[in-house]
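Example S7 (structure tokens).
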């Protein structure tokens, strides 16, 4: 069977980055139609960003990245020395622009790479334009779309869709419109879950 999976994701979510690679791996063995819903996880983050240690006070940031590096390693993901959480509103709008021009997956993944591996400020329009150029998008048209807020309604639609499915965090996977998986589970766990769903719906 073909699984229809909605993935609620944000570019500042490291587990969403891992989730992109996990879906790619699953597609090698399972028929999947994936729909990525760009969901602003921390919309109040200031444009200049905020230090991770200030945003997540009391959390062991260093240990968190040790665990992330272990989780990302099987997929070839390298997490750099990140210190800031950035606002992703521009990046999300640009992703929607990329979606309209058939470049969503390439752009989406490169924004994750820029944020977590290259440690770039993905709230900076010049960084966004640089990524857009890499994947072959019209940067002048993109900049115009960002400045006139052409894709802001889609951010609101994503929030409404998140409420509809009871999504409060990322990544959240909605399978066949009724099964929910929250967080970046292991590949084996995900495969077992899909097998259980297939058995239920057989």
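Recovered sequence:
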């Amino acid at each position: 069977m073909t699984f229809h999976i909605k993935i609620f994701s944000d570019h500042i979510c490291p587990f969403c980055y891992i989730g992109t690679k996990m879906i790619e791996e699953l597609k090698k063995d399972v028929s999947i139609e994936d729909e990525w819903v760009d969901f602003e996880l921390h919309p109040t983050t200031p444009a200049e960003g905020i230090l991770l240690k200030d945003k997540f006070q009391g959390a062991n940031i260093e240990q968190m990245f040790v665990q992330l590096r272990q989780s990302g390693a099987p997929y070839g993901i390298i997490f750099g020395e990140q210190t800031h959480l950035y606002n992703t509103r521009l990046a999300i709008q640009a992703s929607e622009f990329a979606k309209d021009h058939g470049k969503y997956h390439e752009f989406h993944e490169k924004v994750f790479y820029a944020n977590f591996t290259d440690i770039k400020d993905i709230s900076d329009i010049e960084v966004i334009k640089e990524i857009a150029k890499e994947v072959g998008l019209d940067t002048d048209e993109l900049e115009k779309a960002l400045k006139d807020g052409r894709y802001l309604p889609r951010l609101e639609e994503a929030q409404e869709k998140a409420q509809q499915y009871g999504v409060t965090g990322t990544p959240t996977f909605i399978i066949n419109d009724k099964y929910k998986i929250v967080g970046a589970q292991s590949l084996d766990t995900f495969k077992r879950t899909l097998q259980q769903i297939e058995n239920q719906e057989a």
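Notes on this example. The mean pLDDT is 93.
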